[in-house]
Amino acid sequence: MGPWPNDPLGPQARSAADIYWIMFVAAVIVLVIVDGGLVYAGLKFRDRPGHVAKQFHGHNVLELLWTVIPTFMVISFSVLSFQKLTVMNDMSNPGMVMNVQGQQWSWTFSYPQEDRFKLIDNTYLSVGEELHIPVNTKVLLKLSSKDVIHSFWVPNIGGKKDAVPGRPTEIWIQADKPGTYRGQCFEFCGTGHADMLITLVAHAQNDYSTWAAEAVKEANRLRDPNTQKGRELFLSLPCVGCHTVKGTQAAGKVGPELTYVASKKSIAGGLLSPVNEENLTRWIKNPPAVKPGTLMPNLGLSDDQIHDIVQWLLTLKCAQNQPKCP
Ligand code: CUA
Questions:
Q1: Among 64, 88, 112, residue at a domain's last position
Q2: Nearest-CA neighbor of 221 among 239, 250, 247?
Q3: Could you list the residue range(s) of the whole structural domain that residue 146 is in?
Q4: Whole-model pTM?
């Protein structure tokens, strides 16, 4: 990655960068010629004692030149833009098709309905936070929005497309080489807009199925039939707006991440330890009573509901030797 924030690392971004640089260089040349001529003429022909300006009217060659050259430039730019836009808007023959939904304030990436993405509950892999694609593959993203207008943008990979409620849009992306690319929602969508990030991970072709198998395994852990009630309740409550549980649609950034909450040493900012059924129950039942001033509200859940949610949270454990454990 170079010094430019929009260093193109995929064909989509390269198309935009090509147009940008060609027009930029042309604009600089025009600037130098026009402003240079202006300054030169101003100095050479300025009014001064003993100097009488040459009196003439019209100059056919000059007038022809400054009509023909700009016309030619404008036509060339139009043709060039049309060519590049044709490439950028060409949604045909994708190697992979995914659904991408924006909501305040996260993205949900849904993988194709293929066996390699199939989960134990017969749904298909659909996660927030990270978008994983294979390199050198044209990936078509079908964009939608749950609430307001968002915009999908990963500068190095290129393109930028709005996700509009009720109006499907599409964009294709492709990465040249494996790596992690940062992206950002590009349409102001509320107070969490700045945190509506995109992490695009491109895998080498032969690593992609390994990643997919891991992701499916991880997602299946979160779909244990024994904890279904609590999980579905949690995902339907405002909890998801603040907390992230990797592998689910919960991708909030306000509160602590709960992906491996059961492996943590404490909750409530260290007030409640260890993380067991009793402490989780006490916390969820009435957070402000445990920690005055906490941003976590009392949701007024019933004891049964709290029990179900706690049973699910207790399964959010980190496997041994797993990286990134709390
Ligand atoms: Cu979503 Cu800004």
A1: 88
A2: 247
A3: 96-221
A4: 0.70
